[in-house]
Amino acid sequence: MIVGIPAETAPDERRVAMTPSVAKDLVNDGHEVAIEAGAGAPANYHDTQYETVGCTVLDDRKRVFERADIVLQVQAFGTATDGVDQYDEGQVVVGLLS
């Protein structure tokens, strides 16, 4: 299973949906974690921290969505400024859905 973590786009959102330590657990359990470059920066996590635990850091936001079976976002599915068009049919989305 591929877990995708895009950067948050909602104004003033500083959280990231997954910390490097949680990503490490998923990677160790055999899952792939793909995170958008810079996604952790507002929460003071750097791309190198994600790479060190085995995540794939992608420069292209669209590729995170294309690759992911599950998308984790703090503010997802219409609560962020980018709407719902980036999600694929059948994709699992975990996050705030208001």
Report on the structure:
- This protein has 98 residues and is of the alpha/beta class.
- The protein has three helices and five strands; from the N terminus they run βαβαβαββ.
- The chain has a five-stranded parallel beta sheet, with helices on both faces.
- β2, α2 (47-52) and β3 (56-58) form a beta-alpha-beta unit.
- The termini are far apart.
Radius of gyration computed on alpha carbons = 12 Å
Biggest sheet overview: 5 strands, parallel
The total count of strands amounts to: 5
Beta-strand content estimate = 15-25%
One letter per element, helices H and strands E, the order comes to EHEHEHEE
CA distance, first residue to last residue: 26 Å
> What is the molecular shape?
globular
Low-confidence stretches: none
Strand order, largest beta sheet: 3-2-1-4-5
Q: How helix-rich are the residues, as a percent range?
A: 10-25%
Short description:
The chain is an alpha/beta fold and 98 residues long. The protein is built from three helices and five strands, in the order βαβαβαββ.
